[in-house]
Amino acid sequence: MKKYYPPSFTYADFARDFRADLFNPREWATIFKKSGAKYIVLTSKHHEGYAMWPSTYSYNWNAMDVGPKRDLMGELSLAVRQAGLKFGAYYSLFEWYNPLYGKDKKSNFSTHEYVIKKMFPELIEMVSTYQPEVLWSDGDWEATDKYFLSLPFLAWLYNESPVRNTVVTNDRWGQGTSCKHGGYYSCRDRYNPGTLETHKWENAMTLDKDSWGYRRNATLNDYLSIEELIKTLVTTVSCGGNLLVNIGPTPYGTIPPIGQERLEQMGSWLQINGEAVYGSKPWLFQNDTSNPSVWYTKNAQSGLVYAFLLEWPHSRTLYLGAVSGNAGTKATMLGYDKELQIEVGPNNSGLTVSLPPQNEVGQWAWVLRLASLNNSYSSHSQEVIKRKEFFTNLV
User: Residue 354: beta bridge partners?
Assistant: First the structure.
């Protein structure tokens, strides 16, 4: 700030430069649809308190009063739903600069003036007006859920709100609630445990490795490659999680070309391999016991097991140590129309698969469809199947 802005420049001065004059919600929705996404989450209000809708409780600090002069949230929610996607809203519980919050903080959160006059009614207004099916709470680390009145709000949300029968929430509702309470767990940013979790969870991560927002000084190396992005998706889904990919739009209201490219690449990959992602469940093994570049999911109804190969082997032979096959086992590759030759190991342990020529299949992460395995099911993964969750491994 000292280097690039005048001494008198304040955070609030950024709002006048945020015009979103090139914002086209239908273009955004088209990009999201092509990416293979099933739901999107808009940051309706971050820690600076600026609302993306004409909030009654944020006078002259929202997208209608200053900056774009538009109801960005309303326009985007409509376009996203018209594209057949679910619409969600991120909302920060606290605000850096709100004097009411500062006053409560000075009282060691013994008062609730900010919550009662600002946060609580604003959340109700936002939910009632835009009816998000995902409510993504954040900013929970400074105060307890009792200060934020989280339980009374959630009681209203699940019993009286217009989305009471469709909404799902995450776990960030006050100190100590993260990874313990919520429809699904978001735990911490870029959460990817690498093991099967007992509760539905989501990996919220960024395409820009160093930022959750747009950076005009970002370089190509600052962004995840498509290979890294697909690996993140695969390792997340294999362990029962959802992937939430953050992309920071420009102040002009556009999605940076690098973001568009990554999303389109993800979509083209999912068009071929989405069978192993959408509606899938964790298998008996998440990561192969012999090959660390192989991860698994399964189809709960058919018993089919999917093996994601993140790195092509030097030879055209792939050994799967976690798989127990038999004489009836078959292997195919998604996007390739010929059955693959296989060899079952001694005592049905392990499976060797002969892969097709690499130039005849896709270029990023390949998926094998395995049928009639001896270990298609497990009691542990059956428990995962029985859990009734709103999300089912959506991108």
Answer: 317
pTM of the full structure: 0.92
Q: How many CB atoms lie within 10 A of CB 317?
A: 12
Per residue in 183-227, pLDDT (tens digit) is 999 999 999 999 999 999 999 999 999 999 999 999 999 999 999
In the Cβ-directed half-sphere of 98, how many Cα atoms lie within 13 Å?
Answer: 26
**Closest residue by Cα to residue 25 from 87, 109, 67, 113:** 87
pLDDT, one tens digit per residue, over 85-109 is 999 999 999 999 999 999 999 999 9
